[in-house]
From TrEMBL:
The keyword Translocase does not apply. This is Oxidized purine nucleoside triphosphate hydrolase. It catalyses: 8-oxo-dGTP + H2O = 8-oxo-dGMP + diphosphate + H(+); 2-oxo-ATP + H2O = 2-oxo-AMP + diphosphate + H(+); O(6)-methyl-dGTP + H2O = O(6)-methyl-dGMP + diphosphate + H(+); 8-oxo-dATP + H2O = 8-oxo-dAMP + diphosphate + H(+). Monomer. Residues 19-150 form the Nudix hydrolase domain. Oxidized purine nucleoside triphosphate hydrolase which is a prominent sanitizer of the oxidized nucleotide pool. Catalyzes the hydrolysis of 2-oxo-dATP (2-hydroxy-dATP) into 2-oxo-dAMP. Also has a significant hydrolase activity toward 2-oxo-ATP, 8-oxo-dGTP and 8-oxo-dATP. Through the hydrolysis of oxidized purine nucleoside triphosphates, prevents their incorporation into DNA and the subsequent transversions A:T to C:G and G:C to T:A. Also catalyzes the hydrolysis of methylated purine nucleoside triphosphate preventing their integration into DNA. SUPFAM superfamilies: Nudix (SSF55811). One of its GO terms (biological process) is DNA protection. It is found in: Nucleus. Belongs to the Nudix hydrolase family. Its main location: nucleus. Its cofactor is Mg(2+). It is an enzyme of class 3 (hydrolase).
Length: 177
């Protein structure tokens, strides 16, 4: 088990024992206009979906460092402040590895969004999210983010990466373990 994983604090023992791979996901927010920056993923896992910016946490870095790095690489923005808003666990049918995704918002960053090899960025109103073009779970937990609530979600997907067969989602007081 990766020592940076927080699975043991939030999952039941049966799932804690599974291998966990750590990921980040950052949503840059423009508080003045109430818009959030999403990127259209141009390749790889989640291709053609709109999402925040993130990816795998490298072995040598903290989760937060990974979040800032992936945001920079994929959007061109350099976050000067990020805050953790949620924790998501994804289980895919026929895949023994749990995806443990640490979700952040950033309302302070330098630079301007730019298209990269991986993402085409676009601003959306925080109340007008294009959920039909996003991962199926996003419409379920985004309301927590809007209300400034911290959340933990667990979602079981079919291999089609679209169908959710089981879900758990709850507000938590803190994401510091
Ligand atoms: N909003 C949302 N994001 C998700 C879901 N599932 C899921 O993996 N993600 C995010 C977490 C990561 O930010 C991203 C997957 O990481 P990735 O495969 O792009 O990682 P990477 O950039 O390191 O990969 P690579 O192409 O460079 O090898 O997708 C989901 O259901 N909803």
């Amino acid at each position: 088990m990766d020592s940076r994983s927080v699975a043991k604090h939030v999952e039941d023992p049966e799932y804690v024992a599974r291998p966990h791979k750590l990921y980040t996901l950052v949503f840059p927010v423009d508080t003045a206009t109430s818009k959030v920056l999403l990127g259209m993923k141009k390749r790889g896992f989640g291709k053609d979906k709109l999402n925040g910016f993130g990816g795998k946490v490298e072995p040598h870095e903290t989760i937060e460092q990974g979040a800032v790095r992936e945001l920079q690489e994929e959007s061109g923005l350099t976050a000067t402040h990020i805050k953790k808003i949620g924790l998501l666990f994804f289980y895919f049918e026929n895949d023994p590895v749990t995806m443990e995704v640490h979700v952040y918002q950033s309302d302070r960053y330098d630079g301007r969004p730019m298209e990269t090899d991986e993402m085409r960025p676009e601003w959306f109103g925080v109340h007008e999210m294009p959920f039909e073009r996003m991962w199926a779970d996003d419409s379920l937990w985004w309301p927590y983010a809007l209300e400034n609530k911290r959340f933990v979600g667990r979602f079981w997907f079919k291999a089609d990466q679209v169908t959710i067969t089981r879900q758990e989602l709850r507000e938590v007081d803190s994401l510091e373990f």
